Amino acid sequence: MSQECLLKDVIHSPRLERLLDFLRCSPTPWHAARTMARRLEDAGYRRLEETQAWSLTPGDRFYVTRNDSSIIAVNLPTAPLETLRMVGAHTDSPCLRLKTNAAKTSAGWLQLGVQVYGGALLAPWFDRDLGIAGRVHVRHADGRLEGVLINVAAPVAIIPSLAIHLDREANEGRAMNAQTQMAPVFLQHGDVGDFHRLLLEWLEAQHGLTDVSVLDFELGFHDLQPPSVVGAGQELVASARLDNLLSCFIGLEAMLEADGSQGVVLVANDHEEVGSASACGAQGPFLADVLKRINSQVGEAGDEGYIRLIQSSRMISCDNAHALHPNFKDKHDAEHGPEINAGPVIKVNANQRYATNSATAAMFRDICEESGVPVQTFITRADMACGSTIGPITATEVGVPTLDVGVPQWAMHSIRETAGTKDIEYLIRALTSFFNRAELS
Q1: Structure pTM?
Q2: Is the pLDDT of residue 267 over 80?
Q3: Is the dihedral of CA 141, 146, 147, 149 positive or negative?
Q4: What class of enzyme is it (predicted)?
Q5: Largest pairwise CA distance in the chain
């Protein structure tokens, strides 16, 4: 087959098109959870509310959200509930969030002050076309309060770099100050009231809201360059927020492809990038609350039954891994440098920054072997610090045996990240086999 035909096949892959569409539609955690919810509803899952009584039966398929930014989807088996196959991911990504009183003026420009969310690589944010998206809470004329999502997918702001002529040492490496150097320019000759006026206009244009007052908001900037397939052989996908929307997408695809014979849970938490310590984060009670309600209705009720269910279950925490960078090979341990498009990565750390142990890793290796999926291992250099994931936090809070895996990627925490197109299929295949697997041990 010619290279031209190969490129055409990749470009028109339905799965890849779904991924690109998901990334385009998910500029914030709230949008990501909503997009996932819509796909679940299209597949027959019903929405449950945490504030209402639940009535669950074997074979039920449902989802629930918390804070509108975290989501849990569940497929119950028709047989008695004895184990659950769980996959975890997170909906948030490092970004620039607007301050509450964001509007300020300087040198004839209205600018919007920002705070850095998570451990963002700041340099790539300069000279990008930026839109604004997030959640806004309003009060209607009748006093009713409502939260709505907005997505201004137009280039309304930019953070201009300082010219090399005015900073001859710019390429020598220097610290960037988010307080003084990264406020995006928004409107020439504008005043502080113009942002509020435009926010009301966006609410009217996107939701038809005309007689409301804005009480508060959680808004951030996002890059308007669309996700794309990159490389002469179309080997790569490049986009904002691959960490960790790629894992959310992969987990959802696997769940919807599973045969439904086993109990399956997909959890996508918010706030991983800032430590997970929130009501909807992995360190909060969201997952445990849902699991307890499930067990009380379709499992072996009581503390004894719940503990037996958790210890008979397994969790795969999915969060992208650091791929071997061709320009910085020395940043990896020589024996543990995952390659892009060479399969999912088991992440290991002796100090439990990852939750993997030999038992959970062996299970995943066995799944990959049965599925014909190549598998790799990442261990950081002994002289470098290691990041973490929701894996150790979920294992600590819930007690479920857990391992950490992920698709290898470059430029983690940049405004634009890169991963391999083949690895997406590899991990979906492995997780689908995990969801269908009759025996977990």
Answers
A1: 0.95
A2: yes
A3: negative
A4: hydrolase
A5: 71
DSSP three-state, residue 161: coil
User: Where residue 51 falls among pLDDT bands split at 50, 70, 90?
Assistant: very high
DSSP 112-136: EEEEEESS---GGGTT--EEEEEEE
Handedness of CA 327, 329, 330, 331 (dihedral sign): positive
Tokens of 140: 């209607």
- The tens digit of pLDDT for each residue in 39-49 reads 999 999 999 99
Question: Both tokens of residue 234?
Answer: 């179309």
Sheet containing 417-420: which strands, arranged edge to edge? 228-230, 236-239, 417-420, 408-410, 321-322
Check whether residue 82 and residue 192 sit in a common domain: no
- Give the total residue count for the chain: 441
- Alpha-carbon distance of 155 to 184, in angstroms, equals 11
In one letter, which amino acid is 217?
Answer: F
Helix (H, G, I), strand (E, B) or coil at 403: strand
How many Å apart are CA 299 and CA 23, to the nearest integer? Answer: 36
- Distance (Å, rounded) from C-alpha 183 to C-alpha 187? 12
On whether residue 353 sits in a domain, the answer given is yes
Whether residues 79 and 166 share a domain: the answer is no
Amino acid symbol at 20 = L
Could you tell me how far CA 208 lies from the centroid of its own chain?
29
Query: Where residue 296 sits, what CATH number does that domain have?
Result: 3.40.630.10
Tens digit of each residue's pLDDT (9 = 90 or more) over 244-255: 999 999 999 999
Please give the Cα distance from 35 to 328 (Å, whole number).
36
